[in-house]
């Protein structure tokens, strides 16, 4: 039986592992973290329903206490809020996730499917020997070397496997996010299930209610434009004075269910730019999730796209190992075509905001249509 090793145990790696196992292989997932951890990125749109169903997770989300999301509210292009209610769509509601529980559920689903899942294995190197791949990892017991017939790069934006074999990252902007987890007293958090997007002169804000009276708050701007105060909790909260609706959501206001939140730790600064690899497949490897293509959080594509790419890549791997020469080029085309459509949508949506034509953040996004 061919050996497939998946490097990275996030949504993309877990999805690839589950799918490969169900298609008859015995993949190994090697995850650098010692256990599931809280991550930024907690919103699943209604369009994620099919892949959740495919992975057997749809019913478990409600059982695990994740919150349904019934729509989003945006202050974008004008000061008047616009709401999109999922209840009028054909795909039902979305989800506001407890990422720690979600990551654990993905790993459990992989183990249930027969995946050999190993935490605490950090990739040190990857090389090709004849027709096989050799990977070196560091774990608690020391160094481990594995051989594989095929490797899945699920290492996130770092794309460590793909870049080792010459793939280049194409970056379309400089967006980063300063994310801060907030906590209200028990029962005092907002009950609003809508995610909130609010544009400001130098970027935009995102906030979403989470389980257990928590709120995720993120300020987005370009790396060279990000106010340095955003790197400290008090400074980031002070920047809320540039907002209207987000300020009222965080600090409380008139009305039932308006809570006052306090920060849990400090902000986490993370890349949030649009980027992709020039090649997502190669001899003996394929990239999935953010390693293959990463999205602006404005799109809400991140988690669902990662799981979808893991599913399609796994199917391509099985076909490739069975002798299909078209399997990997077909996966490459799938990623390329989807990203082309994303870039057009991305440009069109940013073009709707014209209130600050002199601000560099918006000038960059209005410069030219990408394709």
Structure, explained:
Strands 5, 6, 14, 15, 16, 17, 18 and 19 form an eight-stranded mixed β-sheet that branches. The chain has a six-stranded mixed β-sheet with strand order 8-2-1-12-22-21. Strands 3-7-4 form a three-stranded antiparallel β-sheet, with no helix packed on it. It contains ten helices and 23 strands. Residues 254-259 have low confidence and may be disordered. It has helices at residues 11-22, 49-55, 58-63, 99-113, 160-164, 233-238, 245-251, 302-321, 327-351, 360-366, and strands at residues 4-7, 28-30, 43-44, 67-69, 71-75, 82-85, 94-96, 116-118, 122-129, 132-139, 142-148, 150-153, 169-171, 175-183, 195-200, 203-210, 214-222, 262-263, 268-271, 275-277, 281-282, 285-287, 293-294. With 371 residues, the chain is of the alpha+beta class. The longest helix has 25 residues, at 327-351. The N and C termini lie far apart (43 Å). A hairpin with a 2-residue loop joins β15 and β16. α1 runs parallel beside α4, α1 (11-22) packs parallel to α8 and α8 (302-321) packs antiparallel against α9 (327-351).
């Amino acid at each position: 039986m061919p050996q497939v090793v998946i490097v990275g145990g996030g949504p993309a790696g877990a999805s690839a592992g589950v799918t490969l196992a169900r298609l008859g292989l015995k993949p190994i997932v090697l995850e650098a973290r010692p256990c599931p951890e809280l991550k930024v990125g907690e919103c699943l749109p209604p369009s994620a329903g099919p892949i959740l169903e495919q992975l057997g997770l749809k019913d478990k989300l409600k059982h695990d206490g994740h919150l349904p999301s019934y729509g989003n509210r945006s202050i974008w292009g004008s000061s008047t809020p616009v709401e999109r209610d999922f209840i009028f769509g054909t795909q039902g509601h979305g989800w506001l996730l407890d990422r720690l529980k979600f990551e654990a559920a993905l790993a459990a689903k992989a183990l249930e499917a027969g995946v050999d899942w190993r935490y605490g294995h950090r990739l040190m190197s990857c090389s090709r020997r004849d027709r096989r791949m050799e990977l070196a990892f560091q774990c608690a017991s020391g160094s481990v070397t594995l051989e594989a017939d095929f490797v899945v790069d699920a290492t996130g934006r770092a794309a460590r496997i793909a870049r080792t074999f010459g793939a280049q990252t194409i970056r379309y902007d400089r967006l980063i996010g300063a994310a801060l987890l907030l906590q209200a007293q028990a029962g005092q958090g907002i009950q609003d299930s809508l995610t909130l997007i609010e544009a400001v002169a130098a970027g935009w804000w995102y906030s979403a209610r989470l389980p257990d009276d928590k709120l995720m708050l993120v300020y987005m701007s370009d790396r060279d434009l990000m106010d340095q105060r955003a790197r400290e909790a008090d400074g980031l909260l002070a920047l809320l004075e540039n907002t209207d609706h987000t300020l009222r959501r965080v600090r409380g206001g008139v009305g039932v269910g308006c809570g006052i939140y306090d920060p849990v730790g400090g902000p986490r600064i993370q890349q949030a730019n649009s980027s992709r690899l020039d090649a997502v497949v190669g001899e003996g490897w394929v990239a999935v999730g953010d390693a293959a293509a990463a999205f602006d959080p404005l799109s809400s594509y991140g988690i669902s796209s990662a799981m979808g790419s893991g599913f399609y890549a796994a199917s391509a791997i099985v076909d490739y190992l069975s002798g299909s020469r078209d399997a990997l080029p077909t996966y490459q085309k799938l990623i390329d075509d989807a990203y082309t459509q994303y870039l057009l949508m991305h440009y069109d949506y940013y073009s709707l905001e014209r209130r600050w034509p002199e601000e560099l953040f918006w000038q960059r996004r209005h410069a030219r249509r990408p394709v």
